[in-house]
Amino acid sequence: MHFVQFYPFGLGLIFLFTIQLCNTQSICDLPNCVGINPTSIIFTFCEGLGHHINSSCCFDKDSKVLLGLDLNGCSITDTSKYLDTLTTVEYMSLRGSDVNCSTNNFKGMINLRNLWLSDKCNFTCPGGDTAWHDESSNKCENQTDLCKKYNFTCPENSKCANNGPGLFHCICADSYYGYKCTRKGEFPVTIFTACLSTATVVTSAVLWFLTLKKTVILPVEPMQ
User: Rounded to 5 degrees, what are φ and ψ at 204?
Assistant: First the structure.
């Protein structure tokens, strides 16, 4: 007899998602990067402040917060898929890279204070002239607070916040959260985490049970 085991579709998705996470490459370990060395413009800032250097990245003394980044020689044309890890970066050099200065490459980088440009930027800072206090043909310094510059007004219970060079958005004001910031109070992090954890455990248990129990026995036709 032949035994055919049917795996739940959800389990397959979880497996693929896990593989994708495991294969996600750190921006500090991109191919062909020159790395931060004594000739790197980021080296002066990182070494001078006693920070920790790891390949193309400069971290704080505890090696937890990414503060500087040198993409010289790196095999990369945009940084969009790494933006979640770049929000704390203060110093960044694009020299010797193919990264352009599209604002999408810097979305969320609200702490970026010094940016050295690549040839792909065409001597233009991301966000344009109004996004920086000081700029030259190869360097942009000190982001402009566009919320204050344009006195932008957000809807009720929300406030304007910078979102990277040349970008700003509306976020919930203090003590408000939820859809259109209509809920007042603190977001129930503990309850949300507990519910999410419980749901994850239950779902995993159900999937595991189904993989064990959903076995179909197919009869073999007698040979003629």
Answer: -65, -40
